[in-house]
Amino acid sequence: MSADHTMRALARDVFLHALGESSIEKAFARHVHYDRGVLRVCDDLYDLRSYTRVFAVSFGKAGHQMAEVLARQAGATIGGIVADPVVHSHQVAGYRYFSGGHPHPNEESVRAADAILKSLGTLNSESLALFMISGGGSAVVEKAVDPDISLADVAATYRTLVYSGAPIAQINAVRKHLSAVKGGRMARAAQGAQQVSILVSDVPENALDSLSSGPTMPDSSTVEDCHRIAAEYSMLQEFPTLVRELFEKHALEETPKKDDPAFARSRWWKVLSNETAERAAAEIASAHGFTVEIDHKCDDWDFAKAADYLLERLRALQREVPKACIISGGEVTVKVSGNAGTGGRNQHFALYCAEKIPGENITVLSAGTDGIDGNGPAAGGVVDSTTLDRARIAGMDVGEHLRGFDAFPVFEKLGDAIQTGTTGTNVRDLRILLGY
Q1: Do residues 242 and 149 touch, judged by C-beta distance below 8 A?
Q2: What is the C-alpha separation between 33 and 210, in angstroms, rounded?
Protein backbone atom coordinates (compact mmCIF):
# COMPACT_ATOMS: atom_id res chain seq x y z
CA MET A 1 0.00 0.00 0.00
CA SER A 2 1.44 3.39 -1.01
CA ALA A 3 2.08 6.22 1.43
CA ASP A 4 -0.51 8.31 -0.42
CA HIS A 5 -3.19 5.64 -0.04
CA THR A 6 -2.30 5.25 3.64
CA MET A 7 -2.60 9.00 4.24
CA ARG A 8 -5.95 9.19 2.44
CA ALA A 9 -7.18 6.38 4.69
CA LEU A 10 -5.83 8.14 7.77
CA ALA A 11 -7.55 11.41 6.80
CA ARG A 12 -10.83 9.47 6.55
CA ASP A 13 -10.24 7.92 9.97
CA VAL A 14 -9.59 11.34 11.52
CA PHE A 15 -12.80 12.72 10.02
CA LEU A 16 -14.91 9.72 11.07
CA HIS A 17 -13.54 9.90 14.61
CA ALA A 18 -14.44 13.58 14.81
CA LEU A 19 -17.89 12.77 13.45
CA GLY A 20 -18.40 10.11 16.11
CA GLU A 21 -17.44 12.50 18.89
CA SER A 22 -19.89 15.08 17.49
CA SER A 23 -22.96 12.85 17.87
CA ILE A 24 -26.15 14.09 19.50
CA GLU A 25 -26.06 11.17 21.90
CA LYS A 26 -22.63 12.14 23.27
CA ALA A 27 -23.54 15.83 23.42
CA PHE A 28 -26.70 15.13 25.43
CA ALA A 29 -24.81 12.73 27.70
CA ARG A 30 -22.48 15.60 28.53
CA HIS A 31 -24.97 18.44 28.86
CA VAL A 32 -28.61 17.28 29.17
CA HIS A 33 -29.92 15.04 31.92
CA TYR A 34 -33.37 14.04 33.18
CA ASP A 35 -33.95 12.49 36.60
CA ARG A 36 -37.14 12.15 38.67
CA GLY A 37 -38.99 14.96 36.98
CA VAL A 38 -36.09 17.41 36.81
CA LEU A 39 -34.48 18.32 33.50
CA ARG A 40 -30.94 19.68 33.60
CA VAL A 41 -29.74 21.65 30.61
CA CYS A 42 -26.10 22.62 31.23
CA ASP A 43 -26.27 24.87 34.34
CA ASP A 44 -30.08 25.18 34.45
CA LEU A 45 -32.55 22.97 36.31
CA TYR A 46 -36.22 22.71 35.30
CA ASP A 47 -38.66 20.87 37.55
CA LEU A 48 -41.14 19.74 34.92
CA ARG A 49 -43.75 19.08 37.61
CA SER A 50 -43.95 22.80 38.29
CA TYR A 51 -45.33 23.56 34.82
CA THR A 52 -48.89 23.02 33.67
CA ARG A 53 -47.58 22.19 30.21
CA VAL A 54 -44.20 21.28 28.70
CA PHE A 55 -44.00 21.62 24.93
CA ALA A 56 -40.94 20.71 22.84
CA VAL A 57 -40.03 21.86 19.36
CA SER A 58 -37.12 19.92 17.81
CA PHE A 59 -36.05 20.84 14.31
CA GLY A 60 -33.22 20.92 11.80
CA LYS A 61 -30.98 18.12 10.58
CA ALA A 62 -30.81 16.72 14.11
CA GLY A 63 -34.52 17.25 14.81
CA HIS A 64 -35.45 13.58 15.13
CA GLN A 65 -32.18 12.59 16.77
CA MET A 66 -32.50 15.18 19.55
CA ALA A 67 -36.08 14.19 20.34
CA GLU A 68 -35.12 10.52 20.32
CA VAL A 69 -32.12 10.93 22.62
CA LEU A 70 -34.14 13.07 25.06
CA ALA A 71 -36.95 10.48 25.04
CA ARG A 72 -34.51 7.79 26.14
CA GLN A 73 -34.01 9.78 29.32
CA ALA A 74 -37.43 11.32 29.91
CA GLY A 75 -39.72 8.76 28.29
CA ALA A 76 -43.13 10.14 27.30
CA THR A 77 -42.84 13.02 29.76
CA ILE A 78 -42.04 15.48 26.96
CA GLY A 79 -43.74 15.74 23.58
CA GLY A 80 -44.32 18.29 20.87
CA ILE A 81 -43.27 18.74 17.24
CA VAL A 82 -40.33 17.39 15.23
CA ALA A 83 -39.37 18.88 11.87
CA ASP A 84 -36.56 17.03 10.10
CA PRO A 85 -35.49 16.88 6.43
CA VAL A 86 -35.25 13.08 6.59
CA VAL A 87 -38.34 10.87 6.70
CA HIS A 88 -37.84 8.51 9.65
CA SER A 89 -39.56 5.13 9.76
CA HIS A 90 -39.55 5.29 13.56
CA GLN A 91 -41.10 8.33 15.21
CA VAL A 92 -40.71 9.34 18.84
CA ALA A 93 -43.96 8.88 20.75
CA GLY A 94 -45.70 12.11 21.69
CA TYR A 95 -44.30 14.13 18.79
CA ARG A 96 -46.02 15.26 15.61
CA TYR A 97 -43.64 14.95 12.65
CA PHE A 98 -43.07 17.16 9.61
CA SER A 99 -40.63 16.41 6.77
CA GLY A 100 -39.39 19.89 5.98
CA GLY A 101 -37.34 20.54 2.87
CA HIS A 102 -33.62 21.15 2.64
CA PRO A 103 -31.79 23.10 1.26
CA HIS A 104 -35.02 24.72 0.08
CA PRO A 105 -38.29 24.80 2.07
CA ASN A 106 -41.26 22.73 0.91
CA GLU A 107 -44.96 22.52 1.79
CA GLU A 108 -44.11 20.51 4.91
CA SER A 109 -41.79 23.33 6.02
CA VAL A 110 -44.73 25.72 5.91
CA ARG A 111 -47.05 23.27 7.65
CA ALA A 112 -44.43 22.78 10.36
CA ALA A 113 -44.14 26.53 10.86
CA ASP A 114 -47.92 26.93 11.09
CA ALA A 115 -48.24 24.08 13.58
CA ILE A 116 -45.37 25.37 15.74
CA LEU A 117 -46.67 28.94 15.85
CA LYS A 118 -50.20 27.75 16.66
CA SER A 119 -49.01 25.48 19.47
CA LEU A 120 -46.67 28.07 20.97
CA GLY A 121 -49.52 30.56 20.97
CA THR A 122 -51.44 28.37 23.43
CA LEU A 123 -48.69 28.49 26.08
CA ASN A 124 -48.88 30.74 29.13
CA SER A 125 -46.73 31.83 32.05
CA GLU A 126 -47.05 28.38 33.65
CA SER A 127 -45.73 26.61 30.54
CA LEU A 128 -42.24 25.54 29.50
CA ALA A 129 -41.24 25.78 25.84
CA LEU A 130 -38.26 23.53 25.12
CA PHE A 131 -36.57 24.28 21.81
CA MET A 132 -34.02 21.85 20.34
CA ILE A 133 -32.46 23.59 17.35
CA SER A 134 -29.91 22.34 14.85
CA GLY A 135 -28.47 23.36 11.51
CA GLY A 136 -30.73 23.19 8.49
CA GLY A 137 -33.68 24.51 10.43
CA SER A 138 -33.87 27.62 8.26
CA ALA A 139 -35.37 25.58 5.42
CA VAL A 140 -36.99 22.79 7.43
CA VAL A 141 -39.33 25.23 9.23
CA GLU A 142 -40.32 28.27 7.22
CA LYS A 143 -43.16 30.67 6.56
CA ALA A 144 -42.93 34.02 4.84
CA VAL A 145 -43.67 37.03 7.03
CA ASP A 146 -45.64 38.51 4.13
CA PRO A 147 -48.61 36.23 3.30
CA ASP A 148 -48.48 37.32 -0.35
CA ILE A 149 -45.06 35.72 -0.78
CA SER A 150 -45.54 32.19 -2.11
CA LEU A 151 -43.55 29.08 -1.25
CA ALA A 152 -42.09 29.20 -4.75
CA ASP A 153 -40.91 32.75 -4.07
CA VAL A 154 -39.35 31.67 -0.77
CA ALA A 155 -37.53 28.77 -2.47
CA ALA A 156 -36.29 31.07 -5.25
CA THR A 157 -35.04 33.52 -2.62
CA TYR A 158 -33.17 30.71 -0.85
CA ARG A 159 -31.49 29.71 -4.11
CA THR A 160 -30.36 33.28 -4.67
CA LEU A 161 -28.98 33.50 -1.14
CA VAL A 162 -27.19 30.12 -1.21
CA TYR A 163 -25.57 30.76 -4.60
CA SER A 164 -24.64 34.39 -3.83
CA GLY A 165 -21.30 33.53 -2.22
CA ALA A 166 -22.31 35.36 0.98
CA PRO A 167 -21.25 33.90 4.39
CA ILE A 168 -23.93 31.96 6.28
CA ALA A 169 -24.46 34.66 8.93
CA GLN A 170 -25.25 37.22 6.22
CA ILE A 171 -27.51 34.79 4.35
CA ASN A 172 -29.42 34.18 7.56
CA ALA A 173 -29.70 37.91 8.32
CA VAL A 174 -31.78 38.26 5.15
CA ARG A 175 -33.75 35.09 5.86
CA LYS A 176 -34.68 36.36 9.33
CA HIS A 177 -36.28 39.53 8.05
CA LEU A 178 -38.36 37.67 5.47
CA SER A 179 -39.64 34.98 7.85
CA ALA A 180 -42.52 34.63 10.30
CA VAL A 181 -40.52 32.22 12.49
CA LYS A 182 -36.90 33.38 12.32
CA GLY A 183 -34.98 36.16 14.04
CA GLY A 184 -36.68 35.66 17.40
CA ARG A 185 -40.22 35.49 16.04
CA MET A 186 -40.71 31.92 17.26
CA ALA A 187 -39.83 33.09 20.78
CA ARG A 188 -42.29 35.95 20.39
CA ALA A 189 -45.01 33.39 19.58
CA ALA A 190 -44.31 31.74 22.96
CA GLN A 191 -44.04 35.04 24.81
CA GLY A 192 -44.77 34.72 28.51
CA ALA A 193 -43.77 31.06 28.78
CA GLN A 194 -40.49 29.93 30.29
CA GLN A 195 -38.22 29.16 27.32
CA VAL A 196 -35.00 27.18 27.03
CA SER A 197 -33.14 26.46 23.78
CA ILE A 198 -30.71 23.56 23.31
CA LEU A 199 -28.44 24.46 20.41
CA VAL A 200 -26.50 22.14 18.10
CA SER A 201 -24.58 24.78 16.21
CA ASP A 202 -23.54 24.84 12.56
CA VAL A 203 -22.63 28.54 12.60
CA PRO A 204 -19.55 30.51 13.73
CA GLU A 205 -18.95 30.40 17.48
CA ASN A 206 -19.60 34.14 17.79
CA ALA A 207 -22.83 34.11 15.74
CA LEU A 208 -25.18 31.74 17.53
CA ASP A 209 -28.18 33.90 16.65
CA SER A 210 -27.72 32.83 13.03
CA LEU A 211 -28.22 29.12 13.86
CA SER A 212 -31.32 28.13 11.88
CA SER A 213 -31.68 31.90 11.50
CA GLY A 214 -32.12 32.43 15.24
CA PRO A 215 -35.82 31.61 15.77
CA THR A 216 -35.66 31.88 19.56
CA MET A 217 -32.87 34.43 20.03
CA PRO A 218 -32.66 38.23 19.86
CA ASP A 219 -31.55 39.23 16.39
CA SER A 220 -28.31 41.17 16.13
CA SER A 221 -28.87 41.93 12.45
CA THR A 222 -30.99 44.79 11.16
CA VAL A 223 -33.05 45.83 8.17
CA GLU A 224 -30.16 48.09 7.18
CA ASP A 225 -27.85 45.05 7.19
CA CYS A 226 -30.22 43.26 4.80
CA HIS A 227 -30.12 46.12 2.32
CA ARG A 228 -26.32 46.28 2.50
CA ILE A 229 -25.93 42.50 2.03
CA ALA A 230 -28.36 42.41 -0.89
CA ALA A 231 -26.46 45.21 -2.60
CA GLU A 232 -23.00 43.80 -1.88
CA TYR A 233 -23.82 40.40 -3.38
CA SER A 234 -26.05 41.70 -6.21
CA MET A 235 -29.08 39.81 -4.94
CA LEU A 236 -31.89 42.22 -5.77
CA GLN A 237 -32.10 41.47 -9.48
CA GLU A 238 -32.14 37.73 -8.69
CA PHE A 239 -34.92 37.89 -6.09
CA PRO A 240 -38.51 37.09 -7.15
CA THR A 241 -40.65 40.16 -7.79
CA LEU A 242 -42.52 40.36 -4.44
CA VAL A 243 -39.34 39.91 -2.42
CA ARG A 244 -37.48 42.46 -4.51
CA GLU A 245 -40.32 44.93 -4.01
CA LEU A 246 -40.06 44.60 -0.22
CA PHE A 247 -36.48 45.78 -0.51
CA GLU A 248 -37.18 48.49 -3.06
CA LYS A 249 -40.08 49.89 -1.00
CA HIS A 250 -38.05 49.58 2.26
CA ALA A 251 -40.96 47.54 3.65
CA LEU A 252 -38.97 44.94 5.61
CA GLU A 253 -40.12 44.66 9.23
CA GLU A 254 -37.53 44.75 12.00
CA THR A 255 -36.97 41.59 14.04
CA PRO A 256 -37.12 41.37 17.89
CA LYS A 257 -34.01 42.67 19.66
CA LYS A 258 -32.56 41.79 23.06
CA ASP A 259 -34.84 44.17 25.00
CA ASP A 260 -37.99 42.59 23.54
CA PRO A 261 -40.36 41.12 26.19
CA ALA A 262 -40.30 37.83 24.26
CA PHE A 263 -36.90 37.07 25.79
CA ALA A 264 -37.67 37.99 29.40
CA ARG A 265 -37.77 34.30 30.45
CA SER A 266 -35.46 32.79 27.84
CA ARG A 267 -32.23 30.82 28.15
CA TRP A 268 -29.97 29.43 25.41
CA TRP A 269 -27.37 26.67 25.75
CA LYS A 270 -24.94 25.43 23.12
CA VAL A 271 -24.32 21.71 23.63
CA LEU A 272 -22.47 20.89 20.42
CA SER A 273 -20.54 22.89 17.82
CA ASN A 274 -17.75 22.83 15.27
CA GLU A 275 -15.26 23.23 18.10
CA THR A 276 -16.18 19.72 19.31
CA ALA A 277 -15.29 18.23 15.93
CA GLU A 278 -12.07 20.24 15.67
CA ARG A 279 -10.83 19.07 19.07
CA ALA A 280 -11.69 15.43 18.35
CA ALA A 281 -9.89 15.51 15.00
CA ALA A 282 -6.84 17.12 16.58
CA GLU A 283 -6.70 14.46 19.29
CA ILE A 284 -6.68 11.50 16.88
CA ALA A 285 -4.18 13.16 14.52
CA SER A 286 -1.89 13.82 17.49
CA ALA A 287 -2.23 10.17 18.52
CA HIS A 288 -0.83 9.25 15.08
CA GLY A 289 2.27 11.36 15.69
CA PHE A 290 1.27 14.56 13.89
CA THR A 291 2.00 18.01 15.22
CA VAL A 292 -1.42 19.64 15.02
CA GLU A 293 -2.54 23.22 14.70
CA ILE A 294 -6.20 24.23 14.68
CA ASP A 295 -6.76 27.16 12.36
CA HIS A 296 -10.22 28.43 11.46
CA LYS A 297 -9.14 31.91 10.49
CA CYS A 298 -10.45 31.23 6.98
CA ASP A 299 -14.03 30.55 8.13
CA ASP A 300 -16.45 31.96 5.52
CA TRP A 301 -13.64 32.82 3.10
CA ASP A 302 -13.85 32.14 -0.61
CA PHE A 303 -12.76 28.52 -1.22
CA ALA A 304 -9.67 29.42 -3.28
CA LYS A 305 -8.40 31.99 -0.81
CA ALA A 306 -9.00 29.55 2.05
CA ALA A 307 -7.25 26.67 0.26
CA ASP A 308 -4.21 28.76 -0.62
CA TYR A 309 -3.98 30.03 2.94
CA LEU A 310 -4.29 26.60 4.58
CA LEU A 311 -1.82 24.96 2.22
CA GLU A 312 0.74 27.65 3.01
CA ARG A 313 0.11 27.17 6.75
CA LEU A 314 0.69 23.43 6.32
CA ARG A 315 3.89 23.93 4.31
CA ALA A 316 5.23 26.30 6.96
CA LEU A 317 4.54 23.70 9.65
CA GLN A 318 6.12 20.97 7.49
CA ARG A 319 9.38 22.91 7.49
CA GLU A 320 9.45 22.65 11.28
CA VAL A 321 8.20 19.10 12.00
CA PRO A 322 8.29 15.72 10.20
CA LYS A 323 4.53 15.14 10.40
CA ALA A 324 2.29 18.22 10.18
CA CYS A 325 -1.46 18.56 10.44
CA ILE A 326 -3.77 21.54 10.10
CA ILE A 327 -7.37 21.16 11.30
CA SER A 328 -9.73 23.82 10.02
CA GLY A 329 -13.40 24.05 10.93
CA GLY A 330 -16.19 26.23 9.62
CA GLU A 331 -17.26 26.75 6.04
CA VAL A 332 -15.91 28.19 2.82
CA THR A 333 -17.97 29.91 0.16
CA VAL A 334 -18.30 29.06 -3.51
CA LYS A 335 -20.07 31.44 -5.86
CA VAL A 336 -21.78 29.17 -8.36
CA SER A 337 -22.35 30.48 -11.87
CA GLY A 338 -24.01 28.88 -14.87
CA ASN A 339 -25.34 25.34 -14.79
CA ALA A 340 -23.71 23.55 -11.89
CA GLY A 341 -22.94 19.84 -12.00
CA THR A 342 -22.93 17.55 -8.97
CA GLY A 343 -20.97 18.40 -5.86
CA GLY A 344 -20.66 20.95 -3.10
CA ARG A 345 -18.29 23.38 -1.43
CA ASN A 346 -16.22 20.67 0.30
CA GLN A 347 -15.57 18.67 -2.86
CA HIS A 348 -14.88 21.88 -4.79
CA PHE A 349 -12.37 22.98 -2.13
CA ALA A 350 -10.63 19.59 -2.11
CA LEU A 351 -10.46 19.32 -5.89
CA TYR A 352 -8.99 22.83 -6.09
CA CYS A 353 -6.32 21.72 -3.59
CA ALA A 354 -5.52 18.74 -5.83
CA GLU A 355 -4.34 21.16 -8.52
CA LYS A 356 -1.98 22.83 -6.05
CA ILE A 357 -0.12 19.83 -4.54
CA PRO A 358 1.32 17.55 -7.28
CA GLY A 359 4.72 16.29 -6.16
CA GLU A 360 4.13 17.22 -2.51
CA ASN A 361 3.57 14.89 0.43
CA ILE A 362 0.21 16.44 1.25
CA THR A 363 -3.26 14.97 1.73
CA VAL A 364 -6.37 17.14 2.04
CA LEU A 365 -9.84 16.09 3.16
CA SER A 366 -12.85 18.36 3.33
CA ALA A 367 -16.31 17.15 4.37
CA GLY A 368 -19.56 18.19 6.00
CA THR A 369 -20.49 16.72 9.36
CA ASP A 370 -24.12 16.41 8.27
CA GLY A 371 -23.10 13.91 5.62
CA ILE A 372 -24.31 16.20 2.84
CA ASP A 373 -22.24 18.36 0.51
CA GLY A 374 -24.25 20.33 -2.01
CA ASN A 375 -26.52 18.44 -4.39
CA GLY A 376 -24.85 15.03 -4.45
CA PRO A 377 -24.64 11.94 -2.22
CA ALA A 378 -21.20 12.66 -0.74
CA ALA A 379 -20.20 14.52 2.41
CA GLY A 380 -16.93 15.60 0.81
CA GLY A 381 -13.74 14.27 -0.74
CA VAL A 382 -10.09 13.55 -0.13
CA VAL A 383 -7.14 14.37 -2.46
CA ASP A 384 -3.37 14.03 -2.55
CA SER A 385 -0.46 14.47 -4.94
CA THR A 386 -1.67 11.55 -7.08
CA THR A 387 -5.21 12.81 -7.66
CA LEU A 388 -4.55 14.70 -10.91
CA ASP A 389 -2.69 11.78 -12.51
CA ARG A 390 -5.24 9.20 -11.41
CA ALA A 391 -8.07 11.41 -12.74
CA ARG A 392 -6.24 11.85 -16.06
CA ILE A 393 -5.75 8.10 -16.42
CA ALA A 394 -9.48 7.70 -15.74
CA GLY A 395 -10.20 10.12 -18.59
CA MET A 396 -11.25 13.03 -16.41
CA ASP A 397 -10.07 16.65 -16.61
CA VAL A 398 -10.00 18.08 -13.08
CA GLY A 399 -9.90 21.69 -14.34
CA GLU A 400 -12.99 21.11 -16.47
CA HIS A 401 -14.87 19.61 -13.51
CA LEU A 402 -13.92 22.57 -11.34
CA ARG A 403 -15.15 25.05 -13.93
CA GLY A 404 -18.43 23.14 -14.15
CA PHE A 405 -18.86 22.90 -10.36
CA ASP A 406 -18.98 19.16 -10.94
CA ALA A 407 -16.52 17.66 -8.47
CA PHE A 408 -18.44 14.58 -7.34
CA PRO A 409 -17.97 12.50 -10.51
CA VAL A 410 -14.19 12.79 -10.06
CA PHE A 411 -14.28 11.64 -6.45
CA GLU A 412 -16.75 8.87 -7.26
CA LYS A 413 -14.58 7.57 -10.11
CA LEU A 414 -11.40 7.61 -8.00
CA GLY A 415 -13.03 6.11 -4.91
CA ASP A 416 -12.14 9.22 -2.93
CA ALA A 417 -15.63 10.49 -2.13
CA ILE A 418 -16.48 10.68 1.58
CA GLN A 419 -19.91 9.08 1.86
CA THR A 420 -21.44 8.69 5.30
CA GLY A 421 -25.14 9.12 4.59
CA THR A 422 -27.08 11.65 6.64
CA THR A 423 -25.55 11.71 10.11
CA GLY A 424 -28.36 13.15 12.23
CA THR A 425 -26.11 15.99 13.34
CA ASN A 426 -24.62 19.13 11.82
CA VAL A 427 -21.67 21.07 13.25
CA ARG A 428 -20.38 22.64 10.03
CA ASP A 429 -17.52 21.39 7.84
CA LEU A 430 -14.14 20.01 8.72
CA ARG A 431 -10.94 20.31 6.69
CA ILE A 432 -8.02 18.02 7.50
CA LEU A 433 -4.60 18.72 5.91
CA LEU A 434 -1.78 16.23 6.46
CA GLY A 435 1.87 16.88 5.55
CA TYR A 436 4.41 14.06 5.89
Answers
A1: yes
A2: 26
Cβ atoms of residues 346 and 407 within 8 Å: no
Q: What is the mean pLDDT of residues 405-423?
A: 97
- The answer to whether residue 25 sits within a structural domain is no
| Residues 125, 148 share a domain | yes
Number of domains making up the chain: 2
pLDDT of residue 169: 86
Distance CA 118, CA 358 (A): 58
Q: Is the pLDDT of residue 230 over 80?
A: yes
Domain extent at residue 104: 36-272
> What is the per-residue pLDDT for 50?
98
260 with 345, same domain? no
Residue 103 has pLDDT above 90, yes or no: no
**Residue 150 main-chain phi, psi, to 5 deg:** -80, 165
What is the residue-averaged pLDDT of the chain? 96
Q: Is 31 domain-assigned?
A: no
Output the CA angle 405-427-12, nearest 5 degrees. Answer: 65
Based on the domain organization, do 265 and 280 belong to the same domain?
Answer: no
Does a structural domain hold residue 233? yes
Strands 194-200 and 127-134: parallel
Residue 392's Cβ-count burial label (10 Å; 0-12, 13-18, 19+) is exposed
Assess whether pLDDT exceeds 90 at residue 367: yes
Q: Give the global pTM.
A: 0.88
Q: How many CA atoms lie within 13 A of 173 on its CB side?
A: 17
Section 12-20 average pLDDT:
98
Beta strands in 23-78 (DSSP E): 32-35, 38-41, 44-47, 53-59
What gap in Å lies between CA 60 and CA 161, rounded to an integer? 19
Same-domain check for residues 225 and 331: no
Residues 230 and 360 in one domain: no
pLDDT of residue 1 exceeding 70, the answer is no
Residue 149 domain flag: yes
